[in-house]
Amino acid sequence: MKKSYIISAICLLLLVIFTCFNLSTIGVSRDNLERDARKSQKINDRWQVSKSVTDNLGVLLFYDEHLNDFTYSIYLNREGLSFGYFFRSGGSTSDILEGIQAFDYGNSIALISINKVNVARIECVSEDSHKKGKVYTVEPGKPFAIAIPITDSNMTIKIYDQDGNEIPITTILPYD
Question: At the top level of its lineage, which domain of life is listed (predicted)?
Fold first, then answer.
C-alpha cells in the first residue's frame, strides 16, 4: 500500500513538472540570459555584449568588433506564476545602429544603441518633483543596452552627449 502512494506521488510530481514546462511557467534564469540568447539566436561567441537586467526586464546587445553587425535580445520576467525570464523580442534595426531605440514595457524601458550619437549620460527625472532620479553613465561611442525600471508614472528619460546636449530617442516601441 505504501509503495502505491510513493509511486503515485512521483507520477504526480512528474506530471506537475511536465505541465510547468508546457505552460511556459519556467523561463531562463538571470544568470543564463546571455547563453540562452547566443544559443537561440545563433550569435557568434566572439561578439561582445552589453547587458542590463532588472527584476522584470533583461536587455542584451551583441555586436562585432567593427560595430557593423549586431543583434539585440529582450527578455521579460512575467508577473504571476512564472519563474525566470522569457524571450520577448530580438533582431536588429537601423534605429539601433544610427540612433537610440526604446522598448516600452510599462513598468520598464529598454534602451539600446550602437551609440554612434555618443551618449554619455542618461537621467531619469520625475516631472512631479523635478528631482533627478537614477543616472546612468555610458562611455561615448560604446554600444549600450540598459533596462530602466519605471518608478514614477511621470518619469521622463533625458539622454545627453558628452557636451551636455540632449539627444532624442529615435524610436519608442510600445509593449503590445
Answer: Bacteria
Q: pLDDT, tens digit, for every residue of 80-129?
A: 666 888 988 888 888 888 999 999 988 899 999 999 999 999 998 877 66
Range of the domain at 163: 28-174
User: Stretch 72-86: mean pLDDT, rounded?
Assistant: 82
Written as nine digits, the cell of 13 is: 510530481
| Distance of alpha carbon 9 from alpha carbon 114, whole angstroms | 52
- Cβ atoms of 50 and 145 closer than 8 Å: yes
Let me know if residue 10 belongs to a domain: no
Q: What is the rounded CA–CA span in Å between residue 16 and residue 19?
A: 5
Q: Residue 172: what are its φ and ψ, rounded to 5°?
A: -120, 115
Q: How many domains does the chain have?
A: 1
The reply to whether 12 falls in a domain is no
